[in-house]
Amino acid sequence: MIAGMDADSVAGYFRSKSILITGSTGFLGKVLVEKILRVQPDVKKLFLLIRAPDVESAKLRIQTEVTGREIFRVLKENHGVGFDNFIEEKICPLVGNIMKENFGLDNSQLKEFSKDIDIIISGAATTNFFERYDVAFDTNVLGAKHVCTFAKKCPKLKMLLHVSTGAKS
């Protein structure tokens, strides 16, 4: 929680904000996406960075790995037949990868997209403690570095929240 803020003021803070979320297909990521959409339906846009070959594949990943999950049941019941339209309006898939500089976006995409971001929630990471060192390093260290580098290019950015994986001793 943001220091000095209760749950209602945090939800209010997200109103009309555009938020980039990395790691949205992970356990915490999908919980976060659902919670934001449920408690603050007036969020402007959730940009979800998704590893995929194209936008259609990214949309399919979001449907199967995020919004199609049981955790979205309450939101689906609340919106009824308007659920798909609500999701289409609020969630924007962004095809990219945190392991690549600028998420692998070309300069025109990067410039257009970066000017809209108010908040970045960086949750992408490997949580496999048996992952090869180079893969874990690229995801958990270089990925965080790329998010920070991107954040510097966002003129409206008000907050960067980084969620780290646990460490095994």
TrEMBL record:
Residues 21-167 form the Thioester reductase (TE) domain. It catalyses: a long-chain fatty acyl-CoA + 2 NADPH + 2 H(+) = a long-chain primary fatty alcohol + 2 NADP(+) + CoA. GO terms for biological process: long-chain fatty-acyl-CoA metabolic process; suberin biosynthetic process. Pfam families: NAD_binding_4. GO terms for molecular function: alcohol-forming long-chain fatty acyl-CoA reductase activity; alcohol-forming very long-chain fatty acyl-CoA reductase activity. It is an enzyme of class 1 (oxidoreductase). Keywords: Lipid biosynthesis, Lipid metabolism, NADP, Oxidoreductase. Its EC number is 1.2.1.84. Catalyzes the reduction of fatty acyl-CoA to fatty alcohols. Belongs to the fatty acyl-CoA reductase family. This is Fatty acyl-CoA reductase. It comes from Aegilops tauschii subsp. strangulata. The lineage of its organism: Eukaryota, Viridiplantae, Streptophyta, Embryophyta, Tracheophyta.
